[in-house]
Design goal:
Helices cover 31% and strands 21% of the residues. By secondary structure, it is of the alpha+beta class. A hairpin with a 5-residue loop joins strand 1 and strand 2.
């Protein structure tokens, strides 16, 4: 599904994303504002056709760019926070899908071909590419936080960034690392502070 973008074009794409985010989000801290702008810029750049020396156009064909948060009312599910692209599935139990796997294991997830992952939750039936899910961690529970009894000094996932592309094997290891670094810079503005819920179910605690 889709043609893979040459690494040089993806390097240019990621450099433009870094510049645009810095230009538009410098000093901004209001979570919905940061998330909306962040998602728009990523979706916009992923969607643009870039050409190499042969003149052939390449796009990452984004399907979904957005955040899910761990529901403080029911920490055994996630809900969509902000997104660009196709309609979001929400809520999603943390026992389901690639997002669930991320928040229960505490590990970022990359699925190069979602058609080969039986746990993938297909919100868009036409999505047959790849998915990257990056975790956003809370600040450690501080003494006195009533939600952190028994968990002082430990952290939990507050949410994730979910990126879906209609291109299989869309990102190599280095490119995923750059997106992880970009996400880490802005995640704490979208999901700030300590968790305001008691960890429940299979939610990862570290």
């Amino acid at each position: 599904m889709g043609n893979r973008m040459p690494p040089k074009l993806k390097d240019d794409l990621l450099r433009v994303i870094e510049t645009r985010l810095s230009d538009y989000l410098g000093g901004r801290t209001h979570p919905p504002e940061v998330a909306t702008t962040f998602n728009y810029i990523l979706y916009d750049e992923f969607n643009k056709e870039r050409t190499n020396g042969s003149g052939k156009g390449h796009s990452l064909k984004p399907v979904f760019v957005g955040e899910y948060f761990v529901d403080p009312v029911n920490p055994e599910q996630t809900r969509v926070f902000s997104h660009q692209g196709t309609e979001a599935c929400s809520p999603i139990p943390i026992t389901r899908g690639v997002i669930g796997r991320a928040v229960t294991t505490g590990r970022n997830q990359y699925v190069p071909d979602v058609t080969q992952d039986p746990e993938h939750v297909g919100c868009d039936p036409d999505m047959e590419g790849s998915e990257l899910v990056l975790v956003a961690w809370s600040e450690p529970f501080a003494p006195g936080n009533p939600h952190g009894i028994g968990y002082v000094g430990r952290r939990v996932p507050l949410g994730v960034l979910d990126l879906d592309f209609n291109v299989k094997y869309a990102l190599n290891r280095q490119e995923r690392g750059r997106l992880k670094k970009i996400w880490e810079e802005y995640a704490k503005r979208i999901f700030p502070g300590e968790a305001q819920f008691q960890p429940r179910g299979k939610l990862c605690v570290k």
